[in-house]
Design goal:
3 helices
Length: 82
């Protein structure tokens, strides 16, 4: 963001912003590694990670959205004879 110095950048503020983003990126890497570890555990327990990811996506949806997806999937499957 520009300050009152006619186009000059606030180096301190910019540094803080960059540092906050870098910290969050490191946290995201750590979380991704944790998720990968859990998926490895699930796979070794006999679960398919592909379907676990799908279930996690579905669990985020509200009931109406989930019902709509189910109905549309059924409709498309019937149309394709599946």
């Amino acid at each position: 963001m520009k300050n009152a110095n006619h186009g000059a950048l606030d180096a301190s503020q910019l540094t803080q912003i960059c540092e906050r983003i870098e910290k969050l990126q490191e946290e995201a890497k750590s979380l991704a590694a944790d998720i990968k570890e859990i998926m490895t555990e699930a796979k070794s327990a006999g679960y398919d990670p592909k379907y676990i990811r799908q279930m996690v996506r579905l669990r985020r949806m509200d009931a109406d959205e989930l019902d709509e997806i189910d109905e549309l999937t059924k409709m498309y499957r019937r149309a394709l004879g599946l």
